[in-house]
Write a sequence for this structure.
Protein backbone atom coordinates (compact mmCIF):
# COMPACT_ATOMS: atom_id res chain seq x y z
CA UNK A 1 0.00 0.00 0.00
CA UNK A 2 1.43 3.37 -0.98
CA UNK A 3 2.12 5.94 1.71
CA UNK A 4 1.31 9.24 0.01
CA UNK A 5 1.30 12.94 0.67
CA UNK A 6 -1.32 15.28 -0.74
CA UNK A 7 -1.92 19.02 -0.73
CA UNK A 8 -5.16 20.26 0.77
CA UNK A 9 -6.23 23.89 0.53
CA UNK A 10 -9.03 25.16 2.73
CA UNK A 11 -10.22 27.87 0.38
CA UNK A 12 -11.34 31.39 1.33
CA UNK A 13 -14.98 30.33 1.72
CA UNK A 14 -14.02 27.64 4.26
CA UNK A 15 -11.91 30.14 6.22
CA UNK A 16 -14.58 32.88 6.08
CA UNK A 17 -17.25 30.43 7.21
CA UNK A 18 -15.00 29.42 10.15
CA UNK A 19 -14.90 25.76 9.06
CA UNK A 20 -11.10 25.31 9.05
CA UNK A 21 -10.88 23.60 12.43
CA UNK A 22 -13.78 21.25 11.69
CA UNK A 23 -12.34 20.32 8.29
CA UNK A 24 -8.84 19.69 9.63
CA UNK A 25 -10.36 17.56 12.37
CA UNK A 26 -12.11 15.42 9.76
CA UNK A 27 -8.79 14.64 8.06
CA UNK A 28 -7.19 13.83 11.40
CA UNK A 29 -10.20 11.78 12.51
CA UNK A 30 -9.82 9.71 9.34
CA UNK A 31 -6.28 8.85 10.45
CA UNK A 32 -4.30 11.09 8.11
CA UNK A 33 -1.23 12.75 9.58
CA UNK A 34 -0.79 16.49 9.06
CA UNK A 35 2.88 17.04 8.13
CA UNK A 36 2.63 20.69 7.03
CA UNK A 37 0.20 23.47 7.90
CA UNK A 38 0.05 27.24 7.36
CA UNK A 39 -2.31 30.11 6.61
CA UNK A 40 -1.42 32.16 3.54
CA UNK A 41 -2.83 34.67 1.12
CA UNK A 42 -2.74 33.34 -2.45
CA UNK A 43 -1.41 36.00 -4.80
CA UNK A 44 -2.37 36.24 -8.48
CA UNK A 45 1.11 34.90 -9.33
CA UNK A 46 0.72 31.92 -6.98
CA UNK A 47 -2.76 31.28 -8.40
CA UNK A 48 -1.39 31.22 -11.96
CA UNK A 49 1.36 28.79 -10.92
CA UNK A 50 -1.04 26.46 -9.11
CA UNK A 51 -3.75 26.56 -11.77
CA UNK A 52 -1.37 26.79 -14.78
CA UNK A 53 -3.46 24.35 -16.86
CA UNK A 54 -6.54 26.62 -16.46
CA UNK A 55 -5.02 30.09 -17.00
CA UNK A 56 -6.19 30.35 -20.61
CA UNK A 57 -9.69 29.00 -19.96
CA UNK A 58 -12.72 31.28 -19.82
CA UNK A 59 -13.49 30.52 -16.18
CA UNK A 60 -9.97 31.27 -14.91
CA UNK A 61 -10.48 34.97 -14.05
CA UNK A 62 -13.30 34.05 -11.65
CA UNK A 63 -11.18 31.24 -10.17
CA UNK A 64 -8.29 33.64 -9.55
CA UNK A 65 -10.60 36.27 -8.09
CA UNK A 66 -12.03 33.69 -5.69
CA UNK A 67 -8.79 32.00 -4.56
CA UNK A 68 -7.12 35.39 -3.93
CA UNK A 69 -10.13 36.89 -2.12
CA UNK A 70 -9.07 35.91 1.40
CA UNK A 71 -6.83 33.73 3.53
CA UNK A 72 -6.32 30.07 2.65
CA UNK A 73 -5.15 27.29 4.96
CA UNK A 74 -2.63 25.08 3.16
CA UNK A 75 -1.80 21.68 4.56
CA UNK A 76 -0.07 18.50 3.58
CA UNK A 77 -1.65 15.27 4.76
CA UNK A 78 0.07 11.89 4.72
CA UNK A 79 -1.25 8.37 4.89
CA UNK A 80 -1.86 5.19 2.92
CA UNK A 81 -3.37 6.22 -0.44
CA UNK A 82 -3.90 9.72 0.99
CA UNK A 83 -4.71 11.27 -2.38
CA UNK A 84 -7.68 8.99 -3.07
CA UNK A 85 -8.80 9.06 0.55
CA UNK A 86 -8.91 12.86 0.58
CA UNK A 87 -10.65 13.07 -2.81
CA UNK A 88 -13.34 10.67 -1.56
CA UNK A 89 -13.75 12.74 1.61
CA UNK A 90 -14.22 15.93 -0.44
CA UNK A 91 -16.93 14.60 -2.77
CA UNK A 92 -17.70 15.97 -6.25
CA UNK A 93 -16.62 19.54 -7.10
CA UNK A 94 -20.19 20.84 -7.05
CA UNK A 95 -21.54 20.74 -3.51
CA UNK A 96 -25.08 20.30 -4.85
CA UNK A 97 -24.00 16.96 -6.35
CA UNK A 98 -22.03 15.77 -3.32
CA UNK A 99 -23.39 13.07 -1.04
CA UNK A 100 -24.04 13.75 2.63
CA UNK A 101 -21.04 12.63 4.66
CA UNK A 102 -18.56 14.21 2.26
CA UNK A 103 -17.14 17.63 3.08
CA UNK A 104 -18.83 19.29 0.11
CA UNK A 105 -22.01 17.30 0.72
CA UNK A 106 -22.16 18.46 4.33
CA UNK A 107 -21.08 22.08 3.85
CA UNK A 108 -21.36 23.07 0.18
CA UNK A 109 -23.98 24.30 -2.28
CA UNK A 110 -21.70 25.73 -4.94
CA UNK A 111 -19.49 24.57 -7.80
CA UNK A 112 -17.05 27.48 -7.49
CA UNK A 113 -17.17 28.04 -3.75
CA UNK A 114 -16.41 24.41 -3.03
CA UNK A 115 -14.46 24.88 0.22
CA UNK A 116 -11.48 22.63 -0.38
CA UNK A 117 -8.87 21.69 -2.96
CA UNK A 118 -7.21 18.28 -2.93
CA UNK A 119 -4.50 17.08 -5.31
CA UNK A 120 -5.89 14.82 -8.03
CA UNK A 121 -2.92 12.47 -8.46
CA UNK A 122 0.64 11.74 -7.35
CA UNK A 123 2.29 14.06 -9.89
CA UNK A 124 -0.09 16.91 -9.08
CA UNK A 125 0.45 16.37 -5.35
CA UNK A 126 4.21 16.55 -5.71
CA UNK A 127 4.01 19.69 -7.88
CA UNK A 128 1.43 21.43 -5.68
CA UNK A 129 3.18 20.63 -2.40
CA UNK A 130 6.37 22.18 -3.82
CA UNK A 131 4.43 25.34 -4.74
CA UNK A 132 3.10 25.90 -1.23
CA UNK A 133 5.76 24.35 1.05
CA UNK A 134 9.55 24.41 1.24
CA UNK A 135 11.08 21.02 2.19
CA UNK A 136 11.96 22.21 5.72
CA UNK A 137 8.31 23.08 6.37
CA UNK A 138 7.22 19.43 6.15
CA UNK A 139 7.81 17.33 9.24
CA UNK A 140 8.31 13.59 9.54
CA UNK A 141 7.12 12.23 12.86
CA UNK A 142 5.27 9.29 14.34
CA UNK A 143 2.06 9.68 16.28
CA UNK A 144 1.43 7.69 19.42
CA UNK A 145 -1.80 6.38 17.86
CA UNK A 146 -0.25 5.53 14.47
CA UNK A 147 -0.15 1.82 15.22
CA UNK A 148 -3.90 1.89 15.83
CA UNK A 149 -4.85 3.52 12.51
CA UNK A 150 -3.50 0.95 10.02
CA UNK A 151 -1.94 -2.47 10.23
CA UNK A 152 1.81 -2.58 9.53
CA UNK A 153 1.28 -4.22 6.11
CA UNK A 154 -0.99 -1.32 5.09
CA UNK A 155 1.58 1.41 5.67
Amino acid sequence: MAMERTLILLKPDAVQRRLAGRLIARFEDKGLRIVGLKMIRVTPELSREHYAEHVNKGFYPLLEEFITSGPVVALVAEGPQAIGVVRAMLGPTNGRDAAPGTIRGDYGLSRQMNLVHGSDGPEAAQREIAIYFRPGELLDYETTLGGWVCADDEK
Notes: The domain at 3-139 is CATH 3.30.70.141 (Alpha-Beta Plaits). The CA atoms of residues 80 and 155 lie 6 Å apart.
